[in-house]
Please model this.
Amino acid sequence: MKRRILILLAIAVSISFLGACSKKAEGTDEKKLSVYSSFYPVWDFTSKIGGDKIDNKLLVPMGTEAHDWEPSTTDIANLEKADVLVINGAGMESWSDSIIDSLSNENLSVIVAADGIDLMEGHCHHDHDHENCDHDSEEDKHEDHDACCEDHAKKDGHQDHDACCEDHAKKD
Model:
């Protein structure tokens, strides 16, 4: 809990610092920071911290799965002009690393909300895509290969053991 408070404080200080750097000369209107937030919870969180000091825009449209979304060329062009990009991190935005690396905006500050947080280890279930699973973990080693495949055959609707094992091998 203390770590989350420190991270929130760090984000607030970062936004305040960036706001101070982007102020116009004394006596003129204050420029709002151009902030892009990856998906709604991050946008909401950022809006509450930045308040009226930022112009916060949502990248992933409401109702869209954040894991599967990819930025459009317009989104990338907007990030080239942005001051701040706030993302969740921890693998939530699969597109973030490649997009951030491709940007030429040297002034873009990227805030990763999950930085500094010890994440809980997840568990791999065999009824989904195995792209992000660690099948070498002790927990996932199967004592009895035949029983494992028979169990998977029932869950996945395979008619026989061989088809299940072939399918399971492809996924792993």
